[in-house]
Amino acid sequence: xxxxxxxxxxxxxxxxxxxxxxxxxxxxxxxxxxxxxxxxxxxxxxxxxxxxxxxxxxxxxxxxxxxxxxxxxxxxxxxxxxxxxxxxxxxxxxxxxxxxxxxxxxxxxxxxxxxxxxxxxxxxxxxxxxxxxxxxxxxxxxxxxxxxxxxxxxxxxxxxxxxxxxxxxxxxxxxxxxxxxxxxxxxxxxxxxxxxxxxxxxxxxxxxxxxxxxxxxxxxxxxxxxxxxxxxxxxxxxxxxxxxxxxxxxxxxxxxxxxxxxxxxxxxxxxxxxxxxxxxxxxxxxxxxxxxxxxxxxxxxxxxxxxxxxxxxxxxxxxxxxxxxxxxxxxxxxxxxxxxxxxxxxxxxxxxxxxxxxxxxxxxxxxxxxxxxxxxxxxxxxxxxxxxxxxxxxxxxxxxxxxxxxxxxxxxxxxxxxxxxxxxxxxxxxxxxxxxxxxxxxxxxxxxxxxxxxxxxxxxxxxxxxxxxxxxxxxxxxxxxxxxxxxxxxxxxxxxxxxxxxxxxxx
Length: 507
Prior knowledge:
Blueprint: H1 4-21, E1 45-47, E2 54-56, E3 83-86, E4 94-97, H2 125-226, E5 234-235, H3 236-239, H4 255-259, E6 266-267, H5 269-304, H6 311-326, H7 344-382, E7 399-403, E8 406-410, E9 415-420, E10 427-435, E11 445-449, E12 461-468, E13 473-481, E14 484-491
Helix pairs in contact: 2-5, 2-7, 5-6
């Protein structure tokens, strides 16, 4: 006994078998694959394909639109929302809107759309079919060669992926072995540097103390020389006697020139040491340097003149300046202002700290290099290089195209740029963000974003359209909108196996 479910479905199976076994009646404008939908029912009726109503079978293609979806008039122009099928034997069948049927224009290559217009349309399907097949074979050959290269690149990409992932664990183990030494040397470096810094600070503080004492003595000596009336204070008139304060070089020290250094009526030693000494010392140095500079210029001019003055005259001029300078204290001893070398015990600690830094830097550099390699391998493992990893073969590679005065550069998984042809650097057009192809064809597009900001506009971005080609080549660059670029890149990586592609003849 048959199961109940089979008994229930048996009439439907028999009906389907009856439809397939009997000869299907042709209907104008309907492809063979849909003829079963247009066969007369047992009641000689036709049900609209949208199921909205049932009409007499004789109303099919009667040049009157009965069905809302236009399905009753596939072979006439009665319905504006219907389609006529051109069988185009010898070429490729296709649909056209039914409003083009019998409009005296030949739309189907077999002329079947003008069956009742009185226009004689030549059948050119064989000719178009031959041209289409030649073009199809040409494209297929390119795809075939590209697909073969893609398989090679896939092997290269997978090998690269396997190599990087294989190296991760040994790299981690090597890093783990180095980490104790890194921690040890870092601790020793800190101890040595702390000891070095402590003795250096002590040496520097002692020198600062000695230097300050010497500075006080020099300031006191100079204060005593400037205090002409020996009353323990320096007034502005006493300070005016020093020609090195003659800033405008008019041979006279004015009250205004003195005010720049003497801000009180009378300056005692403490005020002089804290607020006047350093500024006056600098002014005097500048004055003496100017004198020496002028003397050198005078000597150079004297040598160039025919009637140069005698050497005795030059010596007399030098003596005059020397005498003028000797009225004031000479330059402070420069050696007093330079910190003496560190003592041997400090130098020994410095050498020890230097060696500790060298040991730590050496092992730390190795650890950092290992960390970079581990990150690179992990990033590679987490990146999308296609289902077969073929795109990994183009990582770190770039492709250029010259357009007028610019060179555009496309770097898969990197950054796109625009630069003046021959220039070293350029403008960023965005960094790789994601594969942006439609569902089912994800790897047909790339999106690059966050490029250099446009003036008074958005950040630059690039969309990459990827097409099949025998070679990797950037073939087109456009800017359809301000700061939004469109590249077309041909590559074997976009080639599928043409011998496995399914061609759909009917829509």
